[in-house]
Amino acid sequence: MSIPQQATDAIRAAGRRMDTFGWVPATAGNISLRMDADRIAITRSGFHKGFIPEDGVMAVDLDGRAEDSALRPSAETGLHCGIYRRFPNAAAALHGHSVPATVLSRLAGPEIRLAGYELLKAFPGLPTHQAAVRLPVFENDQDIGRLQSRVTQAWDADPAHPPGYLIRGHGLYVWAEDMPGALLRLEALEFMLSCELETRRLRP
Amino acid sequence: MSIPQQATDAIRAAGRRMDTFGWVPATAGNISLRMDADRIAITRSGFHKGFIPEDGVMAVDLDGRAEDSALRPSAETGLHCGIYRRFPNAAAALHGHSVPATVLSRLAGPEIRLAGYELLKAFPGLPTHQAAVRLPVFENDQDIGRLQSRVTQAWDADPAHPPGYLIRGHGLYVWAEDMPGALLRLEALEFMLSCELETRRLRP
Amino acid sequence: MSIPQQATDAIRAAGRRMDTFGWVPATAGNISLRMDADRIAITRSGFHKGFIPEDGVMAVDLDGRAEDSALRPSAETGLHCGIYRRFPNAAAALHGHSVPATVLSRLAGPEIRLAGYELLKAFPGLPTHQAAVRLPVFENDQDIGRLQSRVTQAWDADPAHPPGYLIRGHGLYVWAEDMPGALLRLEALEFMLSCELETRRLRP
Amino acid sequence: MSIPQQATDAIRAAGRRMDTFGWVPATAGNISLRMDADRIAITRSGFHKGFIPEDGVMAVDLDGRAEDSALRPSAETGLHCGIYRRFPNAAAALHGHSVPATVLSRLAGPEIRLAGYELLKAFPGLPTHQAAVRLPVFENDQDIGRLQSRVTQAWDADPAHPPGYLIRGHGLYVWAEDMPGALLRLEALEFMLSCELETRRLRP
Predict the structure, then answer these.
(1) Does residue A142 sit at the B interface (CB-CB below 8 Å)?
(2) For the whole prediction, is pTM greater than 0.90?
(3) A68-104: per-residue pLDDT in tens?
(4) ipTM metric
(5) Which one, A53, B159, B187, C186, has the greatest CB density within 10 A?
(6) Tens of pLDDT along D19-35?
(7) Contacts of A191 in chain B (CB under 8 A)
(8) Superfamily of domain B5-202
(9) What Å distances lie between residue A198 and A63, B198, D145, D184, CA to CA?
C-alpha cells in the first residue's frame, strides 16, 4: 500500500521547519504521522531530516514492521509506535535533537520541571501559567524495546504525564492529534527548554 | 465591515518578521493595527503568528468585541485595546515572546532598567544615550481585564512611562504610530534585552 | 549629480547581509561607499538598514554635506567622512551594531585586545595568528564632530592602529578598499568578538 | 584537465550550507572533493566560502600542486591532501571555523573528549552512545607542511583516531567517503561542540 502524498509532504515540511531551528543535526531526529488506525508513515533511517527526499518516508505497522521489507525505518521507530499504540488520538510524533534538550537532559535528574511560563498553556489540562509540567528524562538505550518499556511504565505510573519526554543526551519526543499540533507543541517545549538553559547560566 | 487588504498584509508580514527572530514560538505573540478611530484589526487566536493565513486577521472594537462573533480574537486582545483607548496616536501594537524577554522578566523585580545603549534614542523624549528607560514588569494574569487595570494604573502613576512593558514569563508589548515604527521599536527593545541577558551572564 | 546604480545596489546588499547576522537592529548601523575622490554614497537617516529602499542612499562630500539638502544623511556621517579624509585608499565603511560589540564595548576599558585567532590574518600587516589586534573603544558622544576628533587623535597617536574601532554601547566601525573587503573585515571582527564574549562567559 | 560540473556544484553548495550555520566567516574555511585517485578539487584562496563563484574551485594533485599555476589554492591545501594521501577512501574534506570550535580549541589541552551523546553514533566503529570520541587539538602553525607532519604523527600513534581534528583558534577538519557524509559528520561534530560549550557555561 502506498503513502498518501499529503503524509509525505507534511513529514518533509516538518523536517524543513525543524532544520531551520537546528533541531535535526546530521541524521538525528525523526518524524511520523498516523495514516490510519494501524499504519504509520515514518522517516527512513539515515537521511538528514531537513532534506528528506520524496522516497524518504515509509510505512510501518503499529509494531514497527516495515510494509516494504527492503526499506529500513528510523532507528527509533519503536518509540513512535509506542506512542501510537498507547494514545489512539495521537496522529503525529516528532523527535527533535536540539542543543538545549541535549544539554539539559545530560545534567538533569529523572525529570525537568517547567513552571511559570505562559507557553505552558499549550499543554492539555493546563489552562493556566501557574501550573507546572514535569518532563520525564529517560536514560538512553540502544535497545529501543527496552527503552519503550520504561517509557510505558512511566505512563502507567503517572496518569498526568505530559505529551512529551526527554531521552538523556538524545533529545525530545512530543506528540499531538495532528502534525500542526505536534510542531506547535515541539516549538513551545523547545522554547521553554531554551529559557531554562539561559536561566541556569545566570544561576549556576 | 471588512478588513482592508493592506492591514491584513501588514499584520501577516509583521508575523513573518517576528518569526525569523524567534519571537512568536508556537501560538505565542499577537499583532494588531488600528484601522480607524475605533476599529482594530488583530490576529485571531490559535494560529502560529509566523504563518498567519489570509483569514487569520479579524476586526474588534475598542472594547475588544468581535465584529464577527463567530471568530475568536487573540486572548490578549484586551491589552491591545487598552493601548489604543489610552493613546489616540497609537496605530500598531506588537506582543513578542522572546527568550530574553521571558527569562529576564521571570528574574526581574517591578522593572527592567536599560541604560547606556545608543538604541535608547529610538524612544520618544530620549534624544541621548545617556538617559535610561525603565520597562515595567507586570505579573502574568489569565484575567486580562485585571491585568489591563494594573497596566493602566502604572500609566497613571508615571507620565514618563515608555511605550512598552513586560509581562512576567510572557513577553514584551510595544506600540507606535504605525506598523513600521512598532517593528523598529520591538527590534530595538529585544536587542537591548539580549544585551542585558548577555551582560548578566558575565556578571551574575 | 546622481548616484551610480552599482553603488546603491552594493549598499543595499550590504545592509541585507548585515541584517541576516542581526547587526543592524531597528535603525542602527550605517553603510557608505566612496564614489570618487570627494563624493561619498551613504545610507539616509532613519531607515532599517536591512531594507534600504531604492532612494535610501544619498550623496555627501568629504565634510558630510549633503548634495541634496532636502535629504538627511545618517547621524554618523561625520565618522564615515573622517575615515575617507584620513585614508585615501578607503572606499567602503561599515557600522555594525551587534550584541557582542555592544556588550563587550560597555564592559571594556580603552581597548579590546584580540589574540590567538587565525582570522587575525584578515588584518593588514598581520600575516600570522600570533600577532594581536588592539581595537580602540571610544566613549559614545552625540556630538559626532567631537567624537571624530578623539578618533583622529587616536590615529595620530598610534600608526599601527587597525582599520576598525568600537564606540561604547554603540557598535563597531570598519573600513577597507572596497565593499567586499569591508564586509569580510566586519564579519571577521564580529566573529572574533563573538568568540571573546563566549570565552568571557567561561572565565568571568 | 577541467573540473566536473558536479564537483564544483557540490563544493559551492557545501559552502552555502556551512555559511547558514556561520561556519565560514570572512574567508575562513575550505572545502575539497577527490575527483579521482590523485586529483583533488579545492576552493581557491581568498573567497568567502558561502559565495564561491563558478570559477572559485581549482584542481590540485595529492601533493597540493595546482594544475593551473596561475591559480592560488586554499592556504590549507596541504591539510586536505594529507587526508587524501593517508585515507584512500576519503573523498571529501571540510574545514569549518565556528565559534564553538574556535573557543573550545583555544581553551583545550591536547584533545577534546565527547561522551554521552547519541550523535557519536555518526562515527565509524562507535555503534553506541556509551563510547567516547577524543578529538585531537593541534597547535596552529602558518607552516602547513609542519602542521601536517604533526597530524600524521598523531594518526600513526593512535589507530583509533576519529575522522576529524581541531586546530587551536582555527577550527575543525572532518572527512568522509563523500560530500554528503562529510557534511553530516561536520554537522554532528559542530552540534556536540555547541553542547560542550553550553555545558561548560553551566559548570565553569
Answers:
(1) no
(2) yes
(3) 999 988 889 999 999 999 999 999 999 999 999 999 9
(4) 0.92
(5) C186
(6) 999 999 999 999 999 99
(7) 22, 25-26, 28, 97, 99, 102
(8) Class II aldolase/adducin N-terminal domain (3.40.225.10)
(9) 39, 10, 43, 28
